Amino acid sequence: MMMLLGITSICCIAIAVVAFLAISFILLLQIFIYMTTGVCKSQKKMNGKTVIITGCTSGIGKETAFDLANRGARLIMACRNVAAAKNLKDQFVKETGNNNIIVKKLDLSSLKSVREFAEQINREENRLDVLIHNAGTAETFKKKTTDDGLEMTMATNQYGPFLLTHLLIDLMKQSAPSRIVVVASELYRLASLNLDNLNPTTTLPAYLYYVSKYANIVFTMELARRLKGTGVTANCLHPGLIDSGIWRNVPAPLSWGLQIIVKGFFKTPKQGAQTTIHLAVSDELDNVTGKYYLDCREYGLSQSIKNHTNAKKFWELSENIVQLKSTDPKI
Ligand SMILES: NC(=O)c1ccc[n+]([C@@H]2O[C@H](COP(=O)([O-])OP(=O)(O)OC[C@H]3O[C@@H](n4cnc5c(N)ncnc54)[C@H](OP(=O)(O)O)[C@@H]3O)[C@@H](O)[C@H]2O)c1
Ligand SMILES: *[C@@H]1O[C@H](CO)[C@@H](O)[C@H](O)[C@H]1NC(C)=O
Ligand SMILES: *[C@@H]1O[C@H](CO)[C@@H](O)[C@H](O)[C@H]1NC(C)=O
């Protein structure tokens, strides 16, 4: 009897110790995330500046859009889900007092939609100071192909933004100094770019997400080189690992474990938006181009991703993939 009690209490103490350690670990980690997260300290106002941000109905994009609206920018919300974007716009207007916010339909997975969007912008806007490529999608297993015959993840995350950049570049040059900001990811380190298969319709989509983020960085570096001397800069970033909608396509039961990690250890969308905001507004970035940022600081890239020869080849092949016309602006 005595011995049984002894064992029970030892077990209880052991469980309590483990629970205490686990909670302390999570708390310490949260403090660590809080302390190390980069925060955009710039107080810069954006009145008189026009900003386009893609995919701002949820996650990081939503927080970035709110911040830019709050700084007084003319904000163009380029979104696939127009109804959701309009609701959000009303909320932004109410919360920031900025009436200069508009919603435009843009589905980056459709070359036609990208062209229609750009035509409208070129017709209706007289300047474009900041273009933020934020929209992104990730699938785990489900292979999808767009109406243009392109693999869905690559089309949405890379080729749509590539075409859009071309179609808006003249307006950005006229508005110089102007900035292009690309939301990439550290997860690029898990991938590489196969120049012999740039439309990988049979590859596992989960892997293609990393490939698309690798492509985003190669694209930004080459874009910056091509735009030297125009007054248009191009930089990219890793926002951190964020509790956003990007994980929504992970199927159960994988998603159950993931949710615990996402909720317990990842940054909030507001924290995740800081580096994008920094690159979009901060005076420090005035003449900075062709750089990669993390936590509002410049960050190193792997050797392989910096290969100019491959970047140039990727660029030229991409022009064909997005069916760039001879009448379109060349970069
Ligand atoms: N979350 C992270 O940990 C993390 C880490 C590194 C990088 N990133 C990058 O951060 C960016 C923002 O992602 P998030 O984490 O904020 O995810 P999110 O909450 O899923 O937001 C993604 C946004 O992109 C939009 N979008 C998706 N497909 C689109 C399309 N075909 N055309 C136009 N818009 C489209 C979505 O619109 P709908 O509402 O219509 O779907 C949504 O507004 C992405 O580029 C992502 O790769 C995220
Ligand atoms: C950026 O470059 C312009 C033109 O060369 C110059 O006038 C300006 O002072 C520079 N800004 C910074 C922050 O270096
Ligand atoms: C870039 O990649 C090519 C092969 O794709 C290789 O031949 C070349 O040596 C690389 N350049 C550098 C500077 O690493």
Task: Walk me through what this model shows.
The model has no long low-confidence stretch (mean pLDDT 96). By secondary structure, the chain is α/β, with parallel strands linked by helices. It has ten helices and eight strands. The longest helix has 35 residues, at 2-36. Helix 5 runs parallel beside helix 6. It is globular, with a radius of gyration of 22 Å. It has one domain (36-321): NAD(P)-binding Rossmann-like Domain (Rossmann fold). It has an eight-stranded mixed sheet with strand order 3-2-1-4-5-6-7-8, with helices on both faces. Strand 4, helix 5 and strand 5 (178-183) form a beta-alpha-beta unit. One 2-acetamido-2-deoxy-beta-D-glucopyranose (NAG) binds at residues 286-287. Keywords: Membrane, Oxidoreductase, Transmembrane, Transmembrane helix. GO terms for molecular function: oxidoreductase activity. This is Retinol dehydrogenase 14.
CATH topology: Rossmann fold
The helix/strand class is alpha/beta
- Secondary-structure element pattern, one letter each: HEHEHEHEHEHEHHHEEH
Radius of gyration: 22 Å
* Major sheet summary line: 8 strands, mixed
Average pLDDT value? 96
The span between the termini is 83 Å
What top-tier CATH class fits best?
Alpha Beta
Q: What is the global morphology?
A: globular
